[in-house]
């Protein structure tokens, strides 16, 4: 921890706590939270140091932003206009400083920090320049920067220790062994919002960042922490109002500046509260709104009047970036951005996914109980199938329902689990913690046992109670085909949920896929009855291959049935082979469904991976940047 930590911290002043109007303004009270999280991370870092793990190179960072303008489109099509959120903000932040960005809610604090971190969502326009040690942000920027977002997302079934341990191992190069035991404190059993925030700060501190961006590290105000004492810790202060700067400079000089503009802060008043009151727009009445807007306009104007003086000071600070800091940053930009090798990433992700999944017991228990219930129900319905042609028709029904069960259960399982992780995965991918391929493989392997258990359980119950072809070989083929079907369906579910913008959309799309799958299954409409121009769809339907395989497995070589009782309207197809001919499977070898299902399992998995790989969160690029290196 030798890096000159340089932190930008966003605090909301003059704003009430979420959902609790009685609580006092939450502005600057609890940076103790951040320091506590730091203590938790220190244990792990000590362990890392003891193991001789190479720590990230510490470099001094001068952060500079010039004329940052951010606007977003608002309104519907015809009335579409543009709303400016950041109005030309400029500043230079020398190394080793703690900057607090303050202002009322909605003034643009998060937008500014996101703009600095390069994480504004796509869909607006961002103009200006962000320079790190005089250089535009390059590949090395993410590896020296830690960013704690305003919202905290993390796995619910991992303990605090495991979450931090994973971050330490994944973000530090290569082997970091963490302390053996730590009190288990699972999130599901209750970790408060504040504790969650600490863990997120801890995760980011573990990578030993040179630049730390914190969006609202405070959560709840506490009376025993006087806010003015925390305010005294800040080196620099940026006060925003409606996307404009009303003050930027040393925090200690802010009171004097506001006083020189005619807004004197009395001695017993907390400066943070005072600034918030002065720059807030009062919407309680039109007159109050007008007066507060005029006050802010005056402050912005005064602040801009000093621009020449400020620009000179900032230019001096920017010019003071040491050549060695610049060279160090250039070196960081040339380095590979992932800290660990693919096998290390894979083993860490596999361990985490396994822990997360194996502790999430309820859905697994429900899955297995439901399989038992449905299996016995289906078996009970078809337990008395006669050895007649009508009975053969019933067997076809059982085979088709087995296909549907395996396909649907696996698709819906992926639709359920995958979107839950998306927020965390996006955050980790944005900080270049790991590649997508080991993540995908780890998820696939973790899902495997449940898919196998479900298919086998269902198969054992239905196959023997209903009394499908009673040879061991036929039973094993039945199990192999249904397992392959489940795996292909799981991959299809991942691809669909990764391609959909939300869980809700994924579930809205799922019924459509189910119906198409059912129709292409080969049972409701036979292959030959489908119009030629859409017949090819069967060849990319995993349900069709599974149904084909299971039917061939059950009926090929079956002797003739009687068709007297119960009376059968069509009594021509009386042997197993005749049934296969009617379904269009007579000339298909057993290898066809196996190869088809294997290819589709691979294909759907590749599609799932590709969708995940290429649908990563898009961030707004910086335009209008001169992007040239400063001399
Ligand atoms: N993508 C967007 N589209 C439309 N409006 C946006 C977008 N992003 C931000 N805004 C608006 O810009 C303003 C500033 O948002 P921002 O999140 O930066 O505020 P903030 O100062 O961080 O507020 P808070 O203190 O509540 O976190 C808000 O009024 C917000 O509604
Ligand atoms: Mg915010």
UniProtKB/TrEMBL annotation:
* Membrane topology qualifier: Multi-pass membrane protein
Q: Which residues form the signal peptide?
A: none
Q: What keywords appear on the UniProt entry?
A: ATP-binding, Membrane, Nucleotide-binding, Transmembrane, Transmembrane helix, Transport
Chief localization: membrane
Q: Which InterPro entries does the annotation name?
A: AAA+_ATPase, ABC2_TM, ABC_transporter-like_ATP-bd, ABC_transporter-like_CS, ABCG_dom, ABCG_transporters, P-loop_NTPase
Q: Where is the composition biased (Basic and acidic residues)?
A: 8-21
The domain of life for this entry's organism is Eukaryota
Task: Give this protein's Gene Ontology molecular function annotations.
Answer: ABC-type transporter activity; ATP binding; ATP hydrolysis activity
- What Gene3D superfamilies does this protein's entry cite? P-loop containing nucleotide triphosphate hydrolases
What residue ranges are annotated as transmembrane? 365-385, 397-419, 440-466, 472-498, 505-527, 533-552, 591-612
Q: List residues of the ABC transporter domain.
A: 63-291
* Record bears the keyword Secreted: no
Where is it located?
Answer: Membrane
| Location of the region described as Disordered in the Swiss-Prot/TrEMBL record | 1-34
Does the record carry Aminoacyl-tRNA synthetase as a key word?
no
Q: Name one GO cellular component term.
A: membrane
Protein name, entry field: ABC transporter domain-containing protein
């Amino acid at each position: 921890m030798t890096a000159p930590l340089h932190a930008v911290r966003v605090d909301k002043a003059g704003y009430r706590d979420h959902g609790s109007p009685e609580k006092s303004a939450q502005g600057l009270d609890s940076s103790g939270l951040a320091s506590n999280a730091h203590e938790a991370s220190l244990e792990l870092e000590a362990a890392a140091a003891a193991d001789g793990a190479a720590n990230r190179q510490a470099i001094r960072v001068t952060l500079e932003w010039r004329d940052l303008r951010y606007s977003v489109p608002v309104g519907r099509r015809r009335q579409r206009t543009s709303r400016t959120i950041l109005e030309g903000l400029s500043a230079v932040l020398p190394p080793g400083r703690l900057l607090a960005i303050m202002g009322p809610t909605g003034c643009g604090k998060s937008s500014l920090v996101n703009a600095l971190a390069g994480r504004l969502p796509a869909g607006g326009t961002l103009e200006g320049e962000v320079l790190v040690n005089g250089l535009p942000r390059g590949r090395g920027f993410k590896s020296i920067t830690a960013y704690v977002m305003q919202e905290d997302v993390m796995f619910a079934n991992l303990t605090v220790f495991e979450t931090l341990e994973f971050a330490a191992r994944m973000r530090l190069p290569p082997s970091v062994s963490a302390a053996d035991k730590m009190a288990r404190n699972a999130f599901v059993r209750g970790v408060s919002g504040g504790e969650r925030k600490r863990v997120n700060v801890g995760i980011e501190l573990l990578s030993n960042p040179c630049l730390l961006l914190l969006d609202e590290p405070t959560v709840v105000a506490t009376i025993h922490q006087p806010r003015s004492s925390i305010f005294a810790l800040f080196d620099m202060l940026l006060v925003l109002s409606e996307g404009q700067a009303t003050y930027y400079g040393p925090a200690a000089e802010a009171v004097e500046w506001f006083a020189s503009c005619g807004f004197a802060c009395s001695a017993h008043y907390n400066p943070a509260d005072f600034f918030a009151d002065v720059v807030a727009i009062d919407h309680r009445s039109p007159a109050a709104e007008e007066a507060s807007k005029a006050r802010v306009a005056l402050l912005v104007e005064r602040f801009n009047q000093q621009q020449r003086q400020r620009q000179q000071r900032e230019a001096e600070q920017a010019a003071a970036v040491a050549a060695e800091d610049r060279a160090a940053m250039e070196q960081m930009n040339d380095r590979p951005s992932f800290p660990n090798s693919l096998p290390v990433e894979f083993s860490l992700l596999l361990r985490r996914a396994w822990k997360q999944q194996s502790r999430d017991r309820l859905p697994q228990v429900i899955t297995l109980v439901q399989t038992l219930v449905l299996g016995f129900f289906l078996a009970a319905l078809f337990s008395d199938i006669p050895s007649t042609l009508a009975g053969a028709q019933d067997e076809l029904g059982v085979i088709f329902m087995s296909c549907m069960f395996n396909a649907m259960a696996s698709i819906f399982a992926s639709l359920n689990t995958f979107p839950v992780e998306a927020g965390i995965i996006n955050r980790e991918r944005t900080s270049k913690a790991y590649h997508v391929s080991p993540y995908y493989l780890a998820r696939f392997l973790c899902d495997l046992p449940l898919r196998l258990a479900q298919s086998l359980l269902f198969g054992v119950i239905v196959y023997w109670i209903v009394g499908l072809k009673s040879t061991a070989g036929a039973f094993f083929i039945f199990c192999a085909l249904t397992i392959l079907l489940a795996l292909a369906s799981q991959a299809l579910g991942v691809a669909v949920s990764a391609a959909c913008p939300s869980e809700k959309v994924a579930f809205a799309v799922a019924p459509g896929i189910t119906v198409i799958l059912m129709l292409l299954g080969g049972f409701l409409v036979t292959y030959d009855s489908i119009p030629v121009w859409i017949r090819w769809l069967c060849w990319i339907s995993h349900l069709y291959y599974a149904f084909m395989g299971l039917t061939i497995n059950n009926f090929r070589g079956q002797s003739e049935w009687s068709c007297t009782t119960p009376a059968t309207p069509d009594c021509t197809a009386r042997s197993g082979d005749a049934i296969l001919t009617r379904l269009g499977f007579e000339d298909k070898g057993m290898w066809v469904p196996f190869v088809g299902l294997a290819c589709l399992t691979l294909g759907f998995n590749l599609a799932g991976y590709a969708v995940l790989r290429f649908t990563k969160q898009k961030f707004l690029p910086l335009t209008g940047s001169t992007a040239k290196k400063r001399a």
